[in-house]
Amino acid sequence: MANRPVENAVVNEIEALYVYCIVPGPQEVDLGPLGLNESPVRTIPGPGISAVVHQCPARPYQSKEPAVVEKWVAAHHRVVQAAWKRFGCVLPMSFDTIVKGSDSVSAHENLISWMQEKQTTFTRQFERLAGKAEYGVQISWNPKVIAADLLESSAHLKEMERQIQAEPLGLAYVGRARLEKAIKVQMEAKAEEYFRSFYSRIRDCALNLRVERPRKIGDGTQMLLNVSCLLEKGGHRRLGQVLDQIAETPALMVRFTGPWPPYSFVRAG
Amino acid sequence: MIDIKEDNLKQGVLGLVMAIVEIIRDALKTQALRRIEAQSLTGEEVERLGRALMDLDAAINEIKQEMGITEAVQSVRDGLDNLVDDLLQKLTGPHEWEDELRSVADGKAEMVKEC
Prior knowledge:
- The complex is a heterodimer of chains A (269) and B (115).
- Chain A is of the alpha+beta class.
- In chain A, 46% of the residues lie in helices and 25% in strands.
- Chain A is built from seven helices and ten strands.
- In chain A, strands 1, 2, 3, 4, 5 and 6 form a six-stranded antiparallel β-sheet that branches. Chain A has a four-stranded antiparallel β-sheet with strand order 8-9-7-10.
- In chain B, helix 1 packs antiparallel against helix 2 and helix 1 (9-37) crosses helix 3 (70-92).
- Chain B is built from four helices and one strand.
- Chain A binds chain B through residues 16, 58-60, 62, 94-102, 110-111, 113-114, 117, 168-174, 177-178, 181, 213, 216, 267-269, and chain B through 29, 32-33, 36-37, 43, 46-54, 82, 89, 99, 102-103, 106, 108-115.
- Strand 6 (97-100) of chain A pairs antiparallel with strand 1 of chain B.
């Protein structure tokens, strides 16, 4: 057991390359110590495209500490962002995309042959994504406020509430459960209606749209819609206006972020 | 998903048990409402059922407070909610899942890909 470090040293000899993104053209550039754990980042030129990489051991970056993972993911994004700024267009890879070598083939050679194999796909994606950026839109509501509004505006629900107050304990309990259920059904219908309406209005402003899973925020609000939009870089005025209109709806919160490199519109395969 | 450390093992188990009790209570409540809405019960029966459910709620809340497991129960339930969400997502939107599988299976250039 005491000799473990020697074994590790052997494993470490198989070097690998962590790939942040692919950029157009043959590039040979040092981007500096921007990478995960301040690793020096550089480009490796391939056929008409280049990979932005740092050299790493042949194992994925894993940690049980959320803070560590967050730092890595932030560094990953920082590199993609820097490459995007520098080369104008990037195809971001997802976190922990690592090209390994083997006994006979180096990681570098594997990367080059992978780029050769994917050249057509990647070039096509560069054409599709050139001059475009991703924007994120999240729309949430506060369910408590919405429930109170629904109760206030519905004569039927108000009548249910009034009856509860005059009833004996058991019936009142059942009455409240029924009222809560009725409100929930109406809220679901409203969420659905909002989603459809907002989705189609946002789609009209975007070149492409991807529906993401609504995230749990845990601040008492509930996400109704979470989409990634592909727009012309800087061409977010129209969408911004539509979102301003949506944000005027009472009890709704709109979050609009970007421009981001087009993470959601790249297919690594 | 269910974080059980040694010093909170007891709370964890109790939280899990109480979360299951709550889920059964919710199922009972749903069934009761269904019967009431189908109007197959007399007013007196509804009153009795309502009181029984109310007492059950009170008993559950009391136990949760006494044992200090209100948060533990909530975290179990949130965990289960997320699990069900994930499953539904995979059943109703298999494309995302397919992409995930494909990118893992695409090991020709020995890509290591984990998210």
